[in-house]
């Protein structure tokens, strides 16, 4: 029995936005092959972050989020607006 192609197993993409997508076609096998090649190249070149790097990035982004929210609260209060965060 023949195995179904990978693109036949994927669910249709969700609709996002107000307009219809340009295309709802699944990627061709050539696209999938080139994606695998690119991922392998990136892995061999050390372009993926480690788990430790990922955690550090999340910590930094979380702190940046806190700083921005505190700044927005301070500015809006200084301008006389009620702040609810």
Automatic annotation (TrEMBL):
<protein>
    <submittedName>
        <fullName>Nuclear poly(A) polymerase 1</fullName>
    </submittedName>
</protein>
<dbReference type="GO" id="GO:1990817">
    <property type="term" value="F:poly(A) RNA polymerase activity"/>
</dbReference>
<dbReference type="InterPro" id="IPR043519">
    <property type="entry name" value="NT_sf"/>
</dbReference>
<dbReference type="InterPro" id="IPR048840">
    <property type="entry name" value="PolA_pol_NTPase"/>
</dbReference>
<dbReference type="Pfam" id="PF20750">
    <property type="entry name" value="PAP_NTPase"/>
</dbReference>
<feature type="domain" description="Poly(A) polymerase nucleotidyltransferase">
    <location>
        <begin position="17"/>
        <end position="82"/>
    </location>
</feature>
<dbReference type="GO" id="GO:0005634">
    <property type="term" value="C:nucleus"/>
</dbReference>
């Amino acid at each position: 029995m023949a195995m179904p192609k990978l693109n036949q197993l994927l669910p249709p993409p969700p609709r996002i936005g107000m307009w219809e997508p340009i295309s709802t076609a699944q990627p061709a096998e050539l696209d999938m092959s080139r994606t695998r090649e690119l991922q392998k190249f990136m892995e061999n070149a050390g372009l993926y972050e480690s788990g430790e790097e990922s955690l550090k990035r999340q910590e930094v982004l979380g702190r940046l989020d806190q700083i921005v929210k505190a700044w927005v609260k301070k500015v809006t209060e200084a301008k006389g607006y009620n702040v609810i965060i």
